[in-house]
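Q: Predict the assembly, please.
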Amino acid sequence: MADWRPSAAPARPHRARLNALLREFMADRGLLEVETPVLSRGAPLDPGVESWRAQAPDGAAGYLQTSPEYPMKRLLAAGAGDIYQLARVFRGEEQGPRHNPEFSLLEWYRLGFDDRRLADELVALVQTVAARGPDWFRPRPGVRRVRYADLFLDALGLDPLRCSARDCAAVAEGAGLSIAGDLDRDGWLDALMALVLAPGFEPDRLILVQDYPESQAVLARASNEHPGYALRFELYWGDMELANGFHELTDPGVFAARRELDIERRRRNGQEIPAADGLFAQAMHAGLPDCAGVALGVDRLLMRLIGAERIDGVIDFPWGRA
Amino acid sequence: MASYSTNEFRSGLKILLDGDPQTIVENEFVKPGKGQAFNRVRVRNLRTGRVLEKTFKSGETVEAADVMDTEMQYLYTDGEFWHFMVPDTFEQYAVGQTALGDAAQWLKDQDFCTVTLWNGEPLTVIPPNFVELKIVQCDPGVRGDTAQGGTKPATLETGAVVKVPLFVEEGETVKVDTRSGEYVSRV
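A: Predicted assembly structure:
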C-alpha cells in the first residue's frame, strides 16, 4: 500500500521560493509568461520521448504534453515575442531516482538569440537563482564548455560521426559497461554519455555540452561551421542533466524530412506512432522567427540546490503515490 | 517461457541471465532527456551468490527464472545428501553440499527451512532465523574473566561453533540467530 503522506515536506518552501525566483528572472528580462494546453491532439514523433495518451469519455484521443514546445512555437510564429512557461509535462514510463513521469519544465524562447547566447542566459539564470536561495548549494562560478565531439574524442578516443556501433561497444566494454539489447550508433553514444561520461563530470560544476550530432538534432538547426553537427546544447550540473536547448530549426523542409526519419526509427524500434501535430507543422510553414529556446528541468535544479539525492525528495506525491 | 520486460524490473524479481537464475537487487532507470533509456541493474546469482552489474536497453525482455521458495522440513542426512520434505504433499527433495552451503551447520531434524527450487531442483537452503541447539562441548566458565567481552567458544550439536557468555555450560541448550551466527539466549 502506498503511503498517503507527502514525501517532500522539507523541500516545499524551497520549491515555492525557486518558482518565484525563476519568474522574477524572466520578468526582469522582459519575457512574457504564457500558458498553453497540457492536453493536445497531436504528439511529437521524436523516438526519445513517449507521450501519455489521454482519452475523453466519448472516445476522443489526445496526448499529454512532453514539453510545451509546439504550442509555444505556434505563439512565436504568430508574433508573441520573447515568452516563457513554467509547465507540467509528462513522459512515458520514466521513473527512477531522477525521473518522475510528471515533472516541471521552465521553457523559454528568445527572438534573435543563437544557441551560444541563450546558453549564457541559462547559466546566468542558474547562478543567479542559486545565489539567492536560503543557504542553497551553488555551482562553482562560471561554466565548463565542451563540444560534444571533443568530449567523446578526449575522454574515449571516439569520433561521434565516424565511429561504428561496434567501436562504441568496445569502448564501453573497456569502461566496464556491457549492455543487453541492440543499439545503433546514437543509442551507444547515449549510453556512453549517460553511463560513462556524465558520471565523471566534476560534481560542483556546470558543464555545457554543445553541438550535438545532427542525428540527435531533434529541432535544432544544423551547424554551418561544423558539418554533421547541430546547434543543440545541454547543461549538466555535475553528473545531472538539467536543460536542453536549440538554435531553433525554422526550415519547414528540414523539419518534414526529420519527421520522416523519426517515423522510420519508431517503426524500426517497434514504438507506437502517435498522431502528429498538424497545427505545429502549419505554424512551421507559416514561418518561425529566428530564435533560440531551452527547457530546464525545475525538479532536478531543485534537487541540486538543496542537495536531494532522489526526485521523490522534491516532489510531494511522486507517481508511486500520486 | 515467461519473460519480463525492463519496465517490470524491481528488486526481488528472479530472472535468467547467462544461464543462471539471478535475483534483481537494485534497478535504476537512466535516460538522457532526448535519448535512449536504459535500466542499470545489480543482480545476485542465486547459484554462486556473486553480485554483478548489468545494463539493459529499456524495453528489452529477459526470461523469468522458474524459481520458487518452498517451506520444507529437514529430515536427515545420509552423508552425501540432506533430505527435506514438503509437509503438505510429503514430496521429498535431496539437497547436495553445494546448494546447502552454510545452512548445514544449523540443521536439526524436524526444523523448517526455506528451500529455493529452480526448475524443480534445490538451489539454496535458508535455515530458520532462530535455532535452538544443545552445547556438546565448551570449557567451564572462568569467573571474573571479562577481558574478551566475557565470551567463550561453544560447539553445538550440529557442529557449529558460536561464542557464548561465560556462565553458559556444556549440556545446556542455547538459542542462536542463524543470520549473524550469534548467541541470543539460554533456553
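Chain B touches chain A at residues 7, 28-38, 40, 54-60, 62 (CB under 8 Å). The two ends of chain B are 49 Å apart (CA to CA).
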